[in-house]
Amino acid sequence: MALPSLEVMAAPTNATATRMVCVGLNFGFVPRLFFPTTTGKDYELTERLEPLEKFREDVTVFSGLDHGTEAQGGHGGVHAYLSGVLSKHSRNMPEANISVDQKAAQIVGSETRYPSLQIASGNDPNNQISWNASGVSLPPISKVDVLYSLLFQKVDPKLQKTTQAKQAARASILDLVKTDAEYLQRKVGAQDKAKLDRYFTSVREVEKRIAQSSEWLIKPKPQVDYEIPSGVNTMDFIDRVPLYYDLMALALETDSTRVMTLGLADIGANYGGFDISRGYHQLTHHGKVPEYITELSVIEQFHTEQLARFLNKLKSVPEENGKTLLDNSMVLFGSGMGNASSHSNKNLPLILAGGGFKHGEHKSYFKDENQKIATPAGRLFVSMLQRFGVETDHFGTASGTLPGLEVRA
């Protein structure tokens, strides 16, 4: 005799799943134009935050968070934005310099077509912000048409069979290599064993990817009423960035993935289509020259405007229990660079939106009146991971959640 179907037995639906999106800017923001001067719910929006006025109750602005001395290094420290650990310091850590997105992706498994997606506006090595547990940076997708194809393009049946054959061959090769490595592991010293452990972790990740892609290869991709323009990959930065955000919103809505990163770096040689007369990197080293800051503001304002546009898209998608896609999606926006002009990785400009947290405030986490000692940003990541469903009380070099950041009842 079978039990009757009960509501408590129902598996969680896609609409109630939690998502995580992390957006990282290579060059940060001019601090005085980004950070509010007052804290609490009545903080005054700065020039840079004005585009978020409509979403004031959906976002929290943070100050006084960074990764401490572990992630100092100017532009060379930006890659630690989502990990809090420089890659060169990760060797002896249990999960190397794994980034928060990849820690979250570990529990997604095969529930979505892609456990995670890494996207970037270019191939700037300083802005590789997504890292796995083996200390390897995950190559991002920079071409809009490739991203669109991965998400929504139908797979040709002939190509499908060829891909299945290739995956089977790769799996066989992995089996052979793993057998040899296991034999070797019994004969080497402690240092080499540690290297082999990293190797086995990488092999297991590849195995999971092959198994997952094989399962999803026979499942049709979702159909969406969205087309990308022709010549999209040669479009200026100012025209391409909105398309990345559009496809990210659709990927979340169709549950194609629940974890994404978007790295936004240099804008290109032709100034990215902005009405400016100098390069982005040059402008960030403004030395407080008013003309430089004015032109830099054009780019920085664009970024917060695009964030607002993305949040609006997520908020317009209804989900179960009267919630929206934004309610179920935590969106981290910021940088591993605190002040590009002085090459400082301190006091990172960070915004968290959605995800079911209580928002509407500017929260300062400086531990002293002179605003010199910050709180580990990794504690914010622990809060995010717990909200995502990861059972952990530490991340990287940080322990505990971020005090005062609460979940809505």
Descriptive notes:
- Strand 10 (394-395) and strand 11 (398-399) form a beta hairpin.
- The protein has a seven-stranded mixed beta sheet with strand order 4-5-1-6-7-2-8. A two-stranded parallel ribbon has the order 3-9. Strands 10-11 form a two-stranded antiparallel sheet.
- The chain is built from nine helices and eleven strands.
- It has two domains: 18-154 and 229-399, 3-Layer(aba) Sandwich (Alkaline Phosphatase, subunit A); 155-219.
- It is of the alpha/beta class.
- Helices cover 33% and strands 11% of the residues.
- The radius of gyration is 22 Å and the shape is globular.
- It has helices at residues 31-34, 100-105, 144-152, 157-185, 190-217, 237-253, 280-284, 290-315, 378-388; strands at 19-25, 59-63, 65-66, 117-120, 259-264, 329-335, 350-354, 362-364, 375-376, 394-395, 398-399.
List the defining traits of the structure above.
seven-stranded mixed sheet, Alkaline Phosphatase, subunit A, 11% strand, globular, disordered N terminus, two-stranded parallel sheet, alpha/beta
Structural class of the secondary structure composition? alpha/beta
What's the architecture of the largest domain in CATH terms? 3-Layer(aba) Sandwich
Count of all domains: 2
Q: Give the topology string: H per helix, E per strand.
A: EHEEHEHHHHEHHEEEEHEE
**Count of extended strands:** 11
- Calculate the mean pLDDT score and round it: 88
What is the helix tally? 9
User: Ranges with pLDDT <50 over ≥5 residues?
Assistant: 1-13
Could you give the order of strands across the largest sheet?
4-5-1-6-7-2-8
> Which word captures the global form?
globular
Main sheet characteristics: 7 strands, mixed
The CATH class of the largest domain turns out to be Alpha Beta
